Structure formats: C-alpha cells, structure tokens
Amino acid sequence: MTAGGALIISPDALLIKLIALPDAQILLWRGLLTALGFVIIVALRNGRNFLSAYQRCGWTGIGVAVLFSFSTFGFVLGNQYTKGGNVLMILAGAPLIAALLSRVFLRERQPLRTWIAIGLCMLGTSLIVVDDAGTGSWLGNGFALLAALALAANFTLCRTRLGIDMSPMLTLSGVLVASMAALVGGATHGLAWPPVESAVLLVLLCLCLLPLGFTLIQRGPLYLPAADVGLLMLMEVVVGTLWVWWILGERPAPIAMFGGALVLGTLFAKGLIERRRERRLRLEDAGGRLS
Question: Of 22, 29, 98, 155, whose Cβ has the fewest other Cβ atoms within 10 Å?
C-alpha cells in the first residue's frame, strides 16, 4: 500500500510546475480539494459508519492531521525559499528521523538492514538532486527540515495506536492547510478560480491523486515501522524525476540515474529480505505447532 501510494503521488512536483500558480493559491485549493477527496474516500470505505471512522482516531488523529499539515507547508514553503534539491535531500532524512523517534518513544529497535537501507537511500536521493542543490537559504532549509520532522513524527504517532486507521483525519489536515493559506495569502485572491488548464490539473492532482495516494501511505504504519514507511516514500523522488524527464524533457544527469537505481535497488533488496524472513518465521511457527 505504501509503495503504491508513493507511485500515485509521484506526479505531484510535475503537476505543480505545470499549474504555475502562486504558492498561497495552490495551498488553498490543495487543502480544499484534498479535504473533499478524503471525505469521498472515507464515505466510500465506511458507508453508514462514516462518522465513526473519524471518532475512532481520537486525539491522536488530531495530532496526525496537524503534523501532516506542517509537512505540507514545510515542503511547499521550503521549495519557495531554497533550492528544490536541498528540500529533497533534507526530506530524505525522514526515515532516519522516524527510526530515532521510534527508538526513543516506542522502544522499537531497527535491525541493521534498515539502518543500511536508510543510509543507501539517503545517498541515492542526494545523487538524484545534486544538480539542483546548493547553499540555499537557512529559512528554506528550515522549512524543509520542518517537513521531514513532521512527516517522521506523523508516522511514529500512528504507531502508538496500532489497529486504528488514521487516514480519515487527513480530511482535517486539508481544512487546516486551506485555512492557513487563506490567512497568509488572502482568501479573496486565493479563491479566484484559476485558468481552465490549471483548474483541470488541480482537480486531477488534489481531488484524485493526492487523497488516494496519501490514504494508502497513511495506512502504512498499521503494518510497517515508521522508518520503513518513510523509506518507501522515497520512491516518489525517483519516479517523480522520471515524470519530469518524460513530460518536460528535463533529462536527469547520469549520476542522478545512478542515484535513482540505488534507491530502487535498495528498496527492492530490502523487500526481498523481509519477504524471505517472513516466510522463514511462518515455517518455523508452523513447525513449532506441529511438534
């Protein structure tokens, strides 16, 4: 689910470039449309138990929504005040932050293979965006760090309520993002309906792709440690680069191609190792029951 969600949201950066609207306006429509999209998904999944899906999340769900909102703002504003490569390199540290937070607050120990995978994926992501990185600004880098911290804290917080799906609370996150964008950019200017082409792309991205993709990603901590969810989200960086290459003709440098292969190869290898380990444990458990 997590990998599928990352693939679904991978055109995010490309579509934002094509929409070409002011940041406040994008954030406002992004918040409103994603909130509507999340409501539709929750209604389709739960039917008559629509409201109970929100009630089950409790105060933890509100915390998840707030953290998700901070990660959205940090990502968008980080790209405004510093180089995009800096933002992606800092965001690549989210799995490391999640692993540390899980160790401190949840007492979850990560196996050596996870730490190795985190290191390799951080290296691969750095190679992908090395051409678009630079000194940037402390403010922009700070916003990017806020996004990485909020993302990692979000996944870690979800792990405190195992068995409870927190994805419905992303509806509240959309409302918070829209409200803050309206305050920052002005509600009248933000609600001005964009040109037809931009409007179509906004609906595709914010009403369809982002709600579906992030619903899947937000369910990831139900089954995976927070660090593994963060690792799988790095697929968005790799596939998003390929989208830009295909649609806009911005061919990645050879070192970026190597970095993407390193990230995907690491995730694939880790997946195989985890799968084999799971099968071995199942066989051992079955053998123990028979004996």
Answer: 22
